[in-house]
């Protein structure tokens, strides 16, 4: 009985997921670039961690201030709006300016480093649209 043997093997042998995002996935140079073990272990500068978490720390400070001034409802409402804006996205191969998020954070009138040097036409991460959609949907 081949059906009984297959069920016995399935129950007795642990099976790991072998999908593209599973245990045996190779490093994708086109999407993630070259890796460096030194960069993954230690930050290159003492202020690097502070700069990486700058927006998160600023949001926490703004929420605490808003809570002290207006009550608990104000930061909760703002967090729900942030979550709603993050869910609405363009297709993965199209550049998004995240204008709604900038408006919620008050950055819409500021000109920053990323506004000048983040030109989507010079981006190196543009890939094949079909492959990027399949990766996002988990089909690849």
TrEMBL record:
Keywords: Chaperone
Keyword match Chaperone: yes
Database matches in InterPro entries: Ump1
Domain of life: Eukaryota
GO cellular component: cytoplasm; nucleus
Entry's transmembrane regions: none
GO biological processes: proteasome assembly
Family, similarity comment: Belongs to the POMP/UMP1 family.
Protein name per UniProt: POMP protein
Source organism per UniProt: Melanocharis versteri (Fan-tailed berrypecker)
């Amino acid at each position: 009985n081949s059906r009984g043997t297959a069920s016995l093997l399935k129950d007795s042998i642990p099976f790991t997921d072998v999908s593209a995002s599973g245990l045996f996935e190779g490093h994708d140079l086109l999407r993630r670039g070259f890796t460096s073990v030194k960069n993954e272990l230690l930050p290159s500068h003492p202020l690097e961690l502070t700069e990486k978490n700058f927006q998160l720390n600023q949001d926490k400070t703004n929420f605490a201030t808003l809570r002290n001034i207006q009550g608990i409802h104000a930061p909760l409402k703002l967090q729900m709006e942030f979550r709603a804006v993050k869910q609405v996205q363009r297709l993965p191969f199209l550049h998004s300016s995240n204008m709604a998020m900038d408006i919620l954070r008050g950055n819409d009138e500021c000109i920053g480093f990323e506004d000048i040097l983040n030109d989507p036409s010079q981006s190196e991460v543009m890939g094949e649209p079909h492959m990027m959609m399949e990766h996002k949907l988990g089909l690849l």
